[in-house]
Amino acid sequence: MEQILQKIYNMTAFSAIAENPSFLIMYALAFVLLYLGIKKKYEPLLLIPIAFGVLIANFPGGDMGVSAVDGNGMVKLADGTMKCIWDMSLPSIAHDLGLMNFIYYMLIKTGFIPPIIFMGVGALTDFGPMLRNLKLAIFGAGAQFGIFAVLLVACNFFTMKESASLAIIGGADGPTAIFTTIKLAPHLLGPIAIAAYSYMALVPVIVPLVVRLLCTEKELKINMKEQDKLYPSKTEFKNMRVLKIIFPIATTTIVALIVPSAVPLVGMLMFGNLIKEIGSDTGRLFDAASNSIMNAATIFLGLSVGATMTVDAFLNWTTIGIVVGGFFAFGLSIAGGILLAKLFNLFSKKKVNPLIGATGLSAVPMASRVANEIALKYDPRNHVLNYCMSSNISGVIGSAVAAGILISFLG
Amino acid sequence: MDENITEALKLMLVGMATVFAVLYLIIGASNLLIAFVNRFVGEDEKPAPKAQSQGATINPAVSQAISQAVNIATGGKAKVDNIKPL
């Protein structure tokens, strides 16, 4: 009887958890992320699949965690033997390592999902606010400062490729961070993706924090509509529809000529946008890109990225370094945008609310929404959303270009 | 270590310069595009605004749907007295 009870105990996850209580830390992490996603509604479409992926990956015996692979691609199988993952076919990965490894190696490790997500983001993005406020788009460049600043510090502790993958968290763009990490330091994909998406989810906390540190009340009260009345724009738009159709084609061409390695991201972003702007003729493609394909890609990305966060992969100094470095990259990017806006105000008659600089990091549209709420707190008539969207959208292009540069130089 | 810092500094300079250059080019190209479209492409065909008389009325079915929606949303606490088209 005792033997049977012992066997039952060994069959359950309790025995392994009792042997290695670190699993409890992972459950706590999963519950915190689930709480942020469900209750606080921080990026729930991403955070909830990621958090659930973390949860199911950490039940011993469940085989839902993505197996850790060493620098030579060697992975430990259930029977204890080592095998090179690159010599394994997809069916044998599914058979030997479980369903989550199959999804991960087929969709994520190949770099397939990030451009697909970018296509969906493009299909959901309206470049109208950027075209109407073109000058403000330059703040999307200033807000990439955190990427390169953290690269400079991180290279003292990590290899250059690892540092670049960590630093790209400052771009505040999940798919870009994943795409860059797959190319440069695939072994760090789990913690980097988690850090990137967690900080994106925490935009409502981080942006106000940095803004409070760097901006005065007077600056935050700069009313953009009043500035527009004082210094009206001379640009008129006779045919916005045609403009919006040509814009993604022109942008793809410019980026492709200067930074070809950014084309998988920017090209797909602009393709998604093009099929949206053409209208009814490509309505079915737009519907697929923005709904079914985007939603399926988000589910697979979230779950499998979450599943990379196993006890072995997460609870180590490298991950802690990534979490800390990622936070600074994120904060410095926001600061870079704010400081560029302040610099702009020194030389321009037409003042810019520094919140528009703060939204130069990608995180569309949450960063703009948060900035708008901050502006309304100081002046209930000061709606800056449309202005922030300009720098926010250009930040997506900026971070993809920054990723392209890192991949070109270090890949 | 020093080599890494030198390379990171180079990357910082090249990276920031390229990001600024690309976004400036996009801004410049967009300005050219706006000028081109304004000059060579006709004005956007906007649907003619629907004429609305002063005493325009709301379709009774729409009015009933709005009343029911308000009723459900407020748990019967609010009542719709008047609906005016904007």
Q: Your description of this structure?
A:
Chain A contains 24 helices and 2 strands. In chain A, α10 (about 145-155) packs across α21, α12 packs antiparallel against α13 and α23 (about 365-380) packs across α24. With about 400 residues, chain A is mainly alpha-helical. Chain A has helices spanning about 1-10, 15-20, 20-40, 45-55, 90-95, 100-110, 115-125, 130, 140, 145-155, 160-165, 175-185, 190-200, 205-215, 215-220, 225-230, 240-260, 265-280, 285-305, 310-315, 315-345, 355-360, 365-380, 385-410, and strands at about 75, 80-85. The model of chain A has no long low-confidence stretch (mean pLDDT about 90). Chain A has a two-stranded antiparallel ribbon with strand order 1-2. Chain B has about 90 residues and is mainly alpha-helical. Chain B contains 2 helices and no strands. Chain B is elongated. The interface between A and B is large, with 45 and 32 residues.
What descriptive keywords fit this protein?
heterodimer; A: 411 residues; mainly alpha; two-stranded antiparallel ribbon; 24 helices; 2 strands; 71% helix; globular; B: 86 residues; 2 helices; elongated
Shape of chain B: elongated
Task: Give the distance, in angstroms, between the N- and C-terminal Cα atoms of chain A.
Answer: 60 Å
Low-confidence stretches of chain A: none
| Helix share, percent of chain B | 55-70%
Low-pLDDT stretches of chain B = 50-55
Supply the helix-strand structural class of chain A: mainly alpha
Biggest sheet of chain B, open or closed, and with what strands and sense?
none
Estimate the helix proportion of chain A, in percent.
over 70%
Oligomer: heterodimer
Secondary-structure blueprint of this entry?
The complex is a heterodimer of chains A (411) and B (86).
Chain A: H1 2-11, H2 13-19, H3 22-38, H4 44-57, E1 74-76, E2 82-84, H5 90-97, H6 99-108, H7 113-124, H8 128-132, H9 139-142, H10 145-154, H11 160-167, H12 174-184, H13 189-201, H14 203-214, H15 217-220, H16 224-230, H17 240-258, H18 263-278, H19 283-307, H20 311-314, H21 317-347, H22 354-358, H23 366-378, H24 385-410
Antiparallel strand pairs in A: 1-2
Helix pairs in contact in A: 3-4, 4-13, 4-19, 5-6, 6-19, 7-12, 7-18, 7-19, 10-11, 10-21, 11-12, 12-13, 12-24, 13-21, 14-21, 14-23, 17-18, 18-19, 23-24
Chain B: H1 2-40, H2 60-73
